[in-house]
Amino acid sequence: MKAGVNMGSPTKGLINRPILASIHTAAFQHNLNRVRELAPESKIWSVLKARAYGHCFDAAIAGLASTDGFALLDIEDARWLRQQGWKGRILLLEGLFHENELSLAQELDCDLVVHCETQVQWLEQFEGKAHKPFNVFLKMNSGMNRLGFKPSEYRTAFHRLHAASYRMHHMTHFANADQLDRQPSVDQQMEVFNQTIDGLDAPTSLANSAAILWHRNALGDWVRPGIMLYGASPTGHFSDIEHAKLQAVMHLQSEIIDIQELAKGDRVGYGGRYEAPDAMRIGIVACGYADGYPRHAKDGTPVWVFNASADGVGLVCPIVGRVSMDMLAIDLRQAPNAKIGTVVELWGEQVPVDEVAQMSDTIGYELLCAVAPRVPVVIK
Amino acid sequence: MKAGVNMGSPTKGLINRPILASIHTAAFQHNLNRVRELAPESKIWSVLKARAYGHCFDAAIAGLASTDGFALLDIEDARWLRQQGWKGRILLLEGLFHENELSLAQELDCDLVVHCETQVQWLEQFEGKAHKPFNVFLKMNSGMNRLGFKPSEYRTAFHRLHAASYRMHHMTHFANADQLDRQPSVDQQMEVFNQTIDGLDAPTSLANSAAILWHRNALGDWVRPGIMLYGASPTGHFSDIEHAKLQAVMHLQSEIIDIQELAKGDRVGYGGRYEAPDAMRIGIVACGYADGYPRHAKDGTPVWVFNASADGVGLVCPIVGRVSMDMLAIDLRQAPNAKIGTVVELWGEQVPVDEVAQMSDTIGYELLCAVAPRVPVVIK
Asked: Which residues of B touch A272 (CB under 8 A)?
C-alpha cells in the first residue's frame, strides 16, 4: 500500500481528514480480462483520460499492464507514461491540438486520431519529416456530430493521408450504444460507417464499453473500453452491468466526525431540506461536494456504514439534507453502533457508484472523474 | 503570468489542450476590500478550503495577502501556508481529526475549531504541553445540525476549555443566511446563540458570505467570507450579488476544436438530446465534465464566444446537446466568424459562474471547487 496527491500519483504525506480513495489494481485486471472475453478477436485501447477517470495513472498502469495500448487525451500524459517505462502503444484520442506537438508525438511514438481538416494539413506538411510514419486513426462523424469527418469528406481525407504514407485506421464513435430507443442507433451508424469505408482497406476502431457489452457486431479491430474498466455502467444503471460481473476499482471511504441528536421537526444542513420526522440520531461524514461527492444527491442516497447495527453488521444509512462543501449527514436510526470514527463507504464495493449517480441524476463517469485532488489515494 | 497543476500551485510545463483557468489576483483584492467595507468592525477569516474553491492556493495568498487570517480544512494546507511565509493567523475549520496532530498544530500556530466532546478531551489532556495556549473557536450547533455542541452542552464545554487556559471564542454557522423563507432563520439562530453565550465573555465568529451581505446584525468579531471572495453568489443567483459589485476571480476559457454542419433533424452528442431544428453550424469546445464543467448543464446554457459575429463582436452561444467527458457543443448560428481556434469563455467575466450553475441546478461553489486538476491554471 502506497500513499500523495490524486494526480498521476498516489498520495504522499500526512493523511489527516479521514476521506480516502483506495484503488484496487486486481479489479482493474479482472475488468480488463472481462473485455478480453467479450472481444477476443480485438486489440484493446484502455482509455485513461481524466487521470484514469479519477483513479490516478499509477494505479491504472499497474492494473492494466496487459492491455495492448492506452488511449489518452493529453500529450503530457503520454510523456509521463513513457517515463514510467510503458513500451506499448499510445493513442491520442483527439490527436494534436497544435502543429508544434508533431515532433514530440513522434518522439513519444504516439498514434494519432485525426478528426478535422486542419490536422490533415499538419500531417501533410509533416510528410517526410517523420522518421517513422504515424499510425493515424481517422475519425468519422457517422452521426454523433461531435468530432470527425462527414462521410462526404471522409474518403478524401483518407486518400490524402494514405498518399502521404501514414498507416491508416478507420475510427468512429457511437452516440447511443447504451440505449435502444435513441437516434442515431448503433445500426444506423454502422451502416454509414461501412458504406463510407467500402474498399478502403484498414483496421477499424469502433466499440466503447457499451458496444463491447451489448453490440458484439460493432467491435472492430481495436475496442476502446473506458467506464467498464473502472467497474461502472455505461448506462448509469448498475443493474445493466450486474450480469457482466465487473468489479468496482475505486472504494471511496470516510468517517463519521460528529453526531447530532435531533428532536422531531429539527432541520438538517443548508436550506433545511430534511426535517426530522421524529427524534433521531444523525452522523456527520467528512465528505462533501468539494471532495467530488455530488451536491445533487437526494435524501435517501445510500451510504454504507460499517459495523453499524447493534450486532456489528454493516448496513446502508441514507443521506439526509443537502450535501455541503466538506460534509454530508446520514440517518443513523438503524445504526446504534455508529459513532465518531466509524468508517463509511461512499461508493465502491457495498454501494455501486452508479447508485449514487442515479440518485444525483448523472452517471458514474462524472462522479469518478470528479474525485477531487484533496482526496488522498492509496493503491492496493 | 505564471503557468503547473491546479493543486496548490499554478501550472508548469506544456499547455496543449486549449482549456485554461486564469485567476485574477486583483479581483481577489477587490472582493476582500468589499468585505472590509461591509464589515468594517470585524476581522476577516478568508476561507481557503478546497484549493481556495478551485482557484489554487498561490493565487489566493497573493490576492488576499491583506486578510487577517486564512481558514482552512486541512492541516497539510496550513503547513504549506507557513512554508510560503504566511505569518498571520490560520484557523482549522473542523479542528483536528486526530489527537496526534496537536503538536503539529502548535508548531504551525493554528487556531482550532472545537466541535465535539472528543476534541475537548484531546485539548484537556494536552493542557500544560502547550507552549502557548491555542485560540479555540468553540462551535455551537444553533440550529443547522451539522457540527457543534447543542446549547445544552455548549456552556459546559466552554468552561472546561476555559479552565484549561485556552483562549476562547464563540462560533456558529448559519443554515439559511442566503434565504428568507427557510427554517432555522438567522434571527432564530442568533437568538439561540446569544442566549447560550450570555455572560461568557469572548470574541465571536458568525457571518459567512451571505450574512456579510444581508445580515449586518449577525457579523461578529471575525467574519468568514468564502464564496464572495471568489466573486460568486451565496444564493447561486448572480442577480442577488449584482449590487455588491464583486468581481469574478476565475475566468475559465477554452477553444473551438471542431465544427460540424448539421442538417435539419440531425442530433448532437450522447443520447441525441438536441435535434437541429434547421440546417445549422455547431462548434465543439474542448471542455467537458472531466474538466469540472457540469454534465447537468441544459441546452441553452450560455458560453461566450469571442470575436463571433460578422463584425467581430463577442456574444453568447448556447450549449446544444449533453456535455460529454471532454467536450461540449455550442450553437453557432449567430456566430459566423467562429472557427477552429476561436476562444470561448465558459465562465468568468462575460458569463457569471452563477448562470452556468443555475442552468445546472446547482450553485457556483460546486462548479468552482470542481475545476479539475487537468485544467491548467495561470495567475494574473
From this structure: 175-176, 182-184
